[in-house]
TrEMBL record:
PROSITE patterns in UniProt: UVRD_HELICASE_ATP_BIND
Keywords: ATP-binding, Helicase, Hydrolase, Nucleotide-binding
Gene3D superfamilies reported in the protein's UniProt record: P-loop containing nucleotide triphosphate hydrolases
Domain UvrD-like helicase ATP-binding: 212-611
Lineage of source species: Bacteria, Bacillati, Bacillota, Bacilli, Bacillales
Species assigned in the record: Niallia oryzisoli
Record-listed ATP binding positions: G233, V234, A235, G236, S237, G238, K239, T240
Pfam assignment, any one: UvrD-helicase
UniProt name for this protein: RNA polymerase recycling motor HelD
SUPFAM superfamilies according to UniProt: P-loop containing nucleoside triphosphate hydrolases
Amino acid sequence: MSKEEAKEMAKEQERINHMIIEIDHTIRKLQNRTSDIKSDTIELRKTFWQDVTVNLDEPDDVIETFTSIKQQAELLSERERSHGQLHKRLKTLARLKDSPYFGRIDFKEDGEAEEHIYIGIASFMDRNEEQFLIYDWRAPISSLYYDFPPGSASYETPEGTITGEMTLKRQYIIRNGQMISMFDTGITIGDEMLQEVLGANASTQMKSIVATIQREQNQIIRNEKSKLLVVQGVAGSGKTSAALQRVAYLLYRYRETLSSENIMLFSPNPLFNSYVSTVLPELGEENMKQTTFQEYLDSQLGTHYRVEDPFSQLEFILNEEASAYYHTRLASIRFKGSLHFKALIDSFLDSIHLGGLYFKDIFFRGRVIVSKMDMLDQFYQLDAAMSIPNRIQMVKDWIMKVLRAQAKKEQKKSWVEAEIQFLEKEDYLAAYNSYKKKHGSGEDTFNDFEEEQKFLIKQVVNREMKPLIHSVKRLKFIDMKKIYQQLFTEQLEIEQPFPPEWDQIRQISITALEKNILPYEDATPFLYLKERIEGKKVNLSIRHVFIDEAQDYSPFQFAYLKELFPYSKMTLLGDMNQAIFLHSKDMVNIFQVDPDSEKETITLTKSYRSTKQIVEFTKGLVIDGDKIEPFNREGRKPTLSIVSDEQDLQCKILECIQTLRNRGYQTIAVIGKNANETKHAFEGLSGKVDGYLMEKGSIHYEKGLVFIPAYLAKGIEFDAVIMYNASQKNFGREMERQLFYTSCTRAMHELHLFSIGKESMFITRQPQATYDVLPNSEILELGERKH
Ligand SMILES: Nc1ncnc2c1ncn2[C@@H]1O[C@H](COP(=O)(O)OP(=O)(O)OP(=O)(O)O)[C@@H](O)[C@H]1O
């Protein structure tokens, strides 16, 4: 370090020290305020009723009492809110104290004096609240840091564009209030800082990237115009990271009107949910709502049908080639995920005025009390110009009327009396309590026998009918299975291009439905049809929807989600090279869904996760891989070890794990092609090495050695990846390319491929220079190899 640099660093450390004094001062001030508010709140809770005037004598008094309670409750909740906000601010200040900022720009706005802008995870002002000592990374001026090198620069504000000259751009790594390093940078965000961040060990929780956001990522994060933002980015290009910082940005930018409750992220699996859950809290924001599409389907359909999950569907695609209906099912998956199938359902719905609706008889005590034929009559009597859901509601009202009349009739029947005789003591007590509630608490017993009898009769009949009424209210009298089945049983007069395998598809669809199984490919079409009949569900509270791994959704699923969130902006993030599910051949399909919306596409081609050597290898695994650009971080070349049998394989893998551990890697994944192979690998090695198995229900993972099937590793990353068996036998079909690529791109620092016998064609087609083939004896020497 030159003398000049040392002097500058000392000056910066001095500023940090000053900053810490200021932050401490604010922390103390806020802590005092917090304890005042806390005691205020406790006092308010204690004296809540003392300060309220309760008088219910006259209507005016009631209104006054109500107003007084309301005022008191508002006061209390205002205190609780302030307490919550102060608590949140104190947490942010503690983070700022540790690392007040990560960047600085010196900017001279045209016609103004030069300013030093320090950028951190939150803003911080001086004691007089006049000047920003730290700017929030999401403030308009902070975008200069991400978007420009020193020189002419500009940024957007709500009032317009500000232009000027940036004379300095500096990055810091500060920990525990101490400067660790500092770089002045010419390009957008300097390499040194990224090298430091990316060179570290993988974590089991995703980290925020605010200090090193790249210019093209910043475009995603700050995009405000597009109703539909499509991000197509290569593996490890920061799609998920950009999405999460975008959530934080939106929460800041629209803080008056938008809260985390209004944002929803669809993730590929529950494991991913927990992987990303720490990013927003780290940035001082609350997590958005998170779900998986499967979770949503289950919540809507799960109680009545066995809804297959996407992983079982994938396991079928990967493992069941020998099955007699393998190719039919593949065709079925493709067709049912397409917009043609959606159009087919729409045409079917259009023809429903001519017939095609089915209802179920309603039974009471073994007898039909409302027949399906009567319901059909009711439905088809109604004006066909009315929507189907409206007509269904009217049929429901009619059924309820019939049930009420039936209840009256039932009261006179002998079974009721018999039931009363056998009423348990508790039932009798419950009936009595209910009577008391109705007739006031003054009475100690029923007034006379007749009244008691009348009341009990009513109670018994109502109790018997309750489940029936409940299911009618939930429209369970519609025979959805039969209605959906018609798409396959009837010769539909519909102008839709059917796939050549249509007849066989019809067969397997009927068989599954008869067993009450909803294959994954049927779940969304079934739900769509159900909602078009029962009434559409729309979610109005969600304003932004993020769909990660969007390439794995079918066009039908996209269309469904668009309709579910009609007022929501959408951000889709995906990578066609990682499309592991069959039905999603092209993310471009989303354009068919919404051709007129204000759509914008951003492409990310630089991969940050893996070393240059790993990216050079993995880019050769995919068709258009030459567009993938590695970030310049050096590491070891991937290795390939060809072994003779499973025993040999496990031996070599054990050695490899040991070597990787000696090198200090903390998250090591043995990736299997599917659940079976992964379990097998785990069982074979578990007595000899500590590790744990991840299955589709797993919701989090810890540091150490994990055995994980490829499709569950989606979206997450490890220090080192061991591909359990990358043989031609295992990865010899074109359709397995994406799965193979996805697995290999999970590695940050090292990638080791093992193969029993001949290696996969995806490897043999690679330039030989991109990986090392280890002779049989060389595994032990892995540790010594340097590149
Ligand atoms: N600007 C950045 N600064 C620092 N780290 C970054 C940056 N962009 C990406 N990364 C890191 O690169 C890795 C990959 O990022 P991320 O998981 O967001 O990529 P992705 O495109 O969603 O990947 P994939 O599609 O392969 O799952 C993460 O470790 C992330 O922290």
